[in-house]
From TrEMBL:
This is Bacterial low temperature requirement A protein-domain-containing protein. PANTHER family: BLL5714 PROTEIN. The keyword Transmembrane helix applies. InterPro entries: Low_temperature_requirement_A (IPR010640). Keywords: Membrane, Transmembrane, Transmembrane helix. It comes from the Eukaryota. The chain crosses the membrane at residues 98-115, 127-149, 161-179, 191-210, 231-254, 260-278, 332-350, 370-387, 393-411.
Amino acid sequence: MDTHEIQPSPRYLFRQPLALQWFESGKLVKRHEEERQAGRFELFLDLLYVAILANFAETLAEDISGAKLVKYILIFAPSWHVWSDLRELMNSFYNDDLLQRVLILWVMSVLVMYGNNAPLVDEDISAMRATVGSYMVARISGSAAHLLYSFASYHHRAQQRLWVTLTLVSLCIYIPLYFESISVRSKIAVAAVGICAEEFSWVFCFSPAAKKMLKAKYTTAVNIAHEVDRYAAFYIVVLGEYLYQIVVGSPAAVGFNLGLLHAVWTLVIAFCLNWMYVHNDGALKSTHPFRYSVYTAFSWATLHLPLSASLLASGHVAAASAAEDRFRDPERWLLCGSLGAGLYCLYALALLSEDKDAPGTLMLPKHLRMIMRPIIGLIIILLGLARDLNITSIMSIIMALIVFCLIWENITSLHCGAGIWERWENTTYPEQRTFGNGHRYVEMTLLSVGVQ
């Protein structure tokens, strides 16, 4: 298909939603061959998540306890599901018309309500109702879009309608949260069951099992480039929590001080975490989990939820160190535990990629290249036991460990026999180069004017 078929058209405010890729009798078909990147309005949605996630992390850091950690997980996961709904829709049917833009604006408006009320769900029944209500409206809005699109395009119809049905059934699980008579513990159990049910519904609807059950000739497929781009964008949003508080409010002023050192160490940690995500397993030739198998694809996508939740929590505590002179025990545990868990998630992501390099191509095989991630992760988690260390020592040790892990991965991912410095060649202007006989180099452009 021509590229203009998926571009915004000035002739219509509302365009027919067309599937961009699908499987037809098991064969992948694409409407166009160009790789897609995230749309501008998708990135605009991510901006709101910067504020929402920061608010969730701030709420957790104010009063760190087991109950608050559970609440943090239970309010973080639904916001992820709403983001995932829009990612799924834009990946399959992106046409950037008025309807899609209004849908994004509408969902963002509902998320504003969710982001403001979710941190207060354990304090006020009205906040609980507003949170659950706004979440259900956001999910129903995404489901309504999928249902509408199933009439406009037959390529994903069977699975879309199955997904809409299971989504609406899963949302019914949250109804008990509206009642004040139900205890908080019971509501926690209800929310946990609802979140797990939604995750299972998503995996099942787009799995080979559902395709086989539906006996559908046309089934869903994803644009891998766009999907990877969207997950990477959300990861960057999460890492932004490391950077926001080290500048806003000038916590490290004035001049050179320990607060500035903590802020710089936090920046280095975030930079290394981003580098690790990009570096992945360090292979020269590898197969992305989305291309390897359906099991690795779902595992890769699902792992981003605990990865994002853990790094968001650790990022907030690390950034807060710029304005503090000591860590309380809960803060130290949250920083070390969540950052260590994040490293384990990054390790699992790297393992999911298929290494296709021949043995002996790189300095070390894949598992030895990646082995420092779980080792460093365990050391950082155990660092939470070090009550006698001050905040500067803890931040310095964590920074040094993560930098060491990154250096290990980059060195062991080099070719066997690789050097440190590449020799610089051809650094002079062509007309200044000389040959052994002393004659200057004559540019080949002289031939174009007839000089022989």
